[in-house]
Amino acid sequence: MTSIITADFPASRPRRNRRDDFSRRLVQENVLTVNDLIYPVFVKEGTGVIEAVPSMPDVNRYSPDTLMAVAETCVSLGIPVMALFPSIDPSLKTPDGIAATHEDGLIPRTIAMLKKAFPELGILCDVALDPYTSHGQDGLLDENGYVLNDETTEILLQQALTQARAGADYVAPSDMMDGRIGAIRQALEQEKLIYTRIMAYSAKYASAFYGPFRDAVGSATNLGKSNKMTYQMDPANRNEALREIAADIREGADMVMVKPGMPYLDIVRDVKDMFRVPTYAYQVSGEYAMIKAAAQNGWLDHDKVMMESLMCFKRAGADGILTYFSIEAARILTGRQ
Ligand SMILES: NCC(=O)CCC(=O)O
Ligand SMILES: [Mg+2]
């Protein structure tokens, strides 16, 4: 392979372009803007609720009414999309998670309120049963506790239809069942919901970095000591991610996602290079908590590490990032409050 250095030292002095702010700006290869951000939020039943999530500093659970102010902040900062995650009342959790399909459930009501008040804000909804199941798994269990694929997909497509009917702009299946992108796309087409976008959590790994999220949605205690390794991917695997992405694109995904984010940027790059489709990454709760905790201890510079981490997603090839830092980053990027 020929070298990409065009000349040898001293003819080439790469530090010349790094010497001044103007020349650094001129050679900068990637940019992060507010248009790259998707803000995940936690919703719970009630009024006037703003409840801190201890393992995720500066992240709260909101009732639909208090969430409106958060949505307003997103709109005023220019954040394109907010992603909704429910913290469901334990009394509504069942083995089949059927409350996920209820038309008058927390999420459909919240979508309707948001789209009425802020039609310009994109709303993305998680399609998965784990916030709704009494066992904390993403699907129906057989007698041995194995998560059933096709039976789960049947409920997931009802959940996706409920969200789309309520006005969700994006449905985002995060459960890793096989074939569910195709099933959901077909169901949407049949109902003439032809503009609902599907963001597929295509390469979702069985990661320990989701811990704080499970506290936030209240599924940690339900899940107990069990894991999700029979459907989420092995962190050791790379080629498998590409096969999962290929399948979801063929089945009708508009955009694909890799999750978690920072430890998986090699996968993001592979996906972008191979498929050249809109590619997103999720900087998950554990990644967020690590940065927050180190910053709280004075061990890292919060803002600098936050902005660097988000830029690295862009460099890896991501078109956007789901991040709990969205509002703080958008304030820095826009200079607005
Ligand atoms: N389906 C959504 C998630 O699992 C989020 C994980 C996280 O933020 O840790
Ligand atoms: Mg798949």
TrEMBL record:
Extent of the signal sequence: none
GO CC annotations on file: cytosol
Key words, A-Z: Heme biosynthesis, Lyase, Magnesium, Metal-binding, Porphyrin biosynthesis
InterPro entries: ALAD, ALAD_AS, Aldolase_TIM
Pfam families, per database record: ALAD
Broadest EC class assigned to this enzyme: lyase
Reaction catalysed by this enzyme: 2 5-aminolevulinate = porphobilinogen + 2 H2O + H(+)
CDD domains: ALAD_PBGS_aspartate_rich
Pathway the protein contributes to: Porphyrin-containing compound metabolism; protoporphyrin-IX biosynthesis; coproporphyrinogen-III from 5-aminolevulinate: step 1/4
BP GO annotations: protoporphyrinogen IX biosynthetic process
SUPFAM superfamilies: Aldolase (SSF51569)
NCBIfam families, A to Z: PRK09283.1 (NF006762)
Annotated family: Belongs to the ALAD family.
Subunit organization: Homooctamer.
Name the UniProt record assigns to this protein: Delta-aminolevulinic acid dehydratase
